[in-house]
């Protein structure tokens, strides 16, 4: 290998610290001109632009000015007072929070026995001894006869005729219905009583009230002795 003793470097070696960009910027480093249209020419143009921009941006004293945003005259457009408004109650969130607190205070059942005990206390399981009427405490106070024998509730209705026949069928249906209370059955009969009172004139003209005169007395509820006696005497 041929060594250039004057420069202290090997032949063909680049100068120390010289990069490809430096070569592109100064083609005279190797004694070869930069051809236009090549990547070296483009790098040389970019380098000149960067050097020019660095020269233009020269920091000067007093160019940075601090600004105090809190100074100056206030316009009093916004007030610093907080206006507290009544927020609407979120019942769903309150219930969820109470449920969370209840779960934290009451640990869940650890086994199946504790789970069955909890369900029994909540009314989800039958209590022993098994009773089909469990939970019907109010119905236990009402005798069975009040559910079945309801004839005394239609004593103020006509003794004969289609109205009487209709009410007897109503009593048969109510006496065989185990799913409603005695109070509901009485309310059903009272509703029919009020209905026939309102339609009294129509029923009289249609002949549904046998023995009724031109001005018949109205049907009366149980307890109205005067009206009941007049109706019974008329019938």
Automatic annotation (TrEMBL):
Span list, region Disordered: 1-31, 47-66, 207-235
Location in or out of the cell: Mitochondrion
GO CC, any one term: mitochondrial small ribosomal subunit
Pfam families linked: MRP-S31
UniProt GO MF annotations: structural constituent of ribosome
Recorded superkingdom: Eukaryota
Keywords for this protein: Mitochondrion, Ribonucleoprotein, Ribosomal protein, Transit peptide
Ribosomal protein found in the keyword field: yes
Family of the protein in this entry: Belongs to the mitochondrion-specific ribosomal protein mS31 family.
Protein name: Small ribosomal subunit protein mS31
Organism: Ixodes scapularis
């Amino acid at each position: 290998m041929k060594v250039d003793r004057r420069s202290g470097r090997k032949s063909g070696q680049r100068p120390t610290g010289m990069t490809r960009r430096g070569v592109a910027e100064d083609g005279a480093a190797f004694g070869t001109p930069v051809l236009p249209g090549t990547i070296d020419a483009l790098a040389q143009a970019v380098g000149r632009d960067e050097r020019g921009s660095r020269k233009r941006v020269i920091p000067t004293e007093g160019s940075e000015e601090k600004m105090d945003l809190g100074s100056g005259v206030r316009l009093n457009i916004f007030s610093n007072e907080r206006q507290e408004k009544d927020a609407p109650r979120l019942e769903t969130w309150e219930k969820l929070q109470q449920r969370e607190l209840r779960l934290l205070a009451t640990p869940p059942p650890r086994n199946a026995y504790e789970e069955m005990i909890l369900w029994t206390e909540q009314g989800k399981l039958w209590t022993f001894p098994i009773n089909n009427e469990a939970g019907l405490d109010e119905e236990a106070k009402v005798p069975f006869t009040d559910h079945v024998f309801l004839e005394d509730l239609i004593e103020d209705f006509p003794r004969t005729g289609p109205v009487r026949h209709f009410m007897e069928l109503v009593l048969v249906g109510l006496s065989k219905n185990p799913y409603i209370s005695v109070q509901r059955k009485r309310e059903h009969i009272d509703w029919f009583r009020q209905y026939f009172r309102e339609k009294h004139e129509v029923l009289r003209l249609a002949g549904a009230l046998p023995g009724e005169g031109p001005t018949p007395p109205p049907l009366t509820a149980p307890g109205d002795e005067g009206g009941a006696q007049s109706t019974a005497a008329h019938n």
